[in-house]
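Can anyone check this?
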Amino acid sequence: MKPSFILSWAVRLLFLAGAAFLALGGPLPPLLATVLKRLGGDAAGQDSVLLARIMPGFSPLAALSAALAGRSWHLAAAWCAPFLAVLLLAFWRGRFFCRHVCPAGTCYTLACKTGAPRKTLFPWRISGFIFWGIAAGAAAGLPLLLPLDPLATFNRALLPARFPHDAAAWIAGVILPLFLVLGALQPMLWCGKFCPLGYLFDLVRRLRPAGRPAVAAAKPVDQTRREILGGAAVGLPLALLFRRFGMPGTDSAAAPRPVLPPGAGDLVRFSGACTRCYACVQQCPTGVIRVRTPQAAGLGAAFLPLLDMDKGACAAFCNACTRACPAGALRPMPVDEKDKLQIGIAKIDRDACLAWTDGEHCMVCQEFCPYGAIADNPSPTGIPRPVVNPAACRGCGACQKDCPAIRKGKAVIIHGVERQLPAKDAA
């Protein structure tokens, strides 16, 4: 076995282990934690949050989509160094990142070593159509194929390690294990036929002068033209249809508007910019951010990370998700700004409320509200009954999480807002 082969695989496995470590956010090695703490970080939590966004942040595909769909050029510029370095590497060496760095690529290569019978399961190369479908959808505000970014799929595959009993986490992470199985039969099926990031590297590599006659370049140009037109023909109509019919737009007791993580802005922007890498889910200390299935969130918001107030509450002191997001889908903000942001509004279901319907002494929601947004409206017999001040409510979910009502479910439900803005009564 050649030393170069051993060195190559040692590097690949090192990057694979590092990517898994980064995706899970630590724990930090003691020496690194000490160094970061001396530099002013919180080694117990803050720095592990920053680690979670490193690997997905290397994706030029995610940065391009965030800039087009989220129209957040200033946010994309804040993370430009990693993905620009990857693009420059592709200009110089083509798919070098795929062959030596990409953790998903390493997993797919290992699947080829199983010795399973080789078959041709899928002969067509559609990575170009997927890439241009993402770009066209992003331009329309909703790149539905963006979750096929391989760095995001790798992060998603690790999510069940934290939420082993969450069916949505297993469904969301199915792409990597599925193509590992298929790749054992048709080697490098994902990398050769489907990967939009690898296609982008090939596209960038073509920009480098190669000294070939112009006639030789005609075929790639024609193929690229077909891929652009085919991808646009799929990505653009899908984005427009899902923006029109696939977004949950109701805000009733039966179907409340979903609550987005802080910094998401609005549902259309967040759906377009989010890569579903779930760095925010991995790093949420209270576990309130969860993956939602299409039935729970609407088709346009399928598998988005949303807040589930039955699982936890969005703590006032925390902005971990805004710092963990690698694509600019969540706008980073300091804790004091996030504390004033209204991400939802609590609403009382009086038919389920113990105080309103049963006349019991229960003001648990008021006791747990950190913003004083729940007042009492005494009944004729003097029983205090909760009422919400929408101008003061932030939608943190503490009231819903601790509501003891069970007859008709929770009596306090957080409804998402159409657009996240500072609460009117925020000090």
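Reply from J.R.: I decoded it. Confidence is low (pLDDT under 50) at residues 39-45, 213-217.
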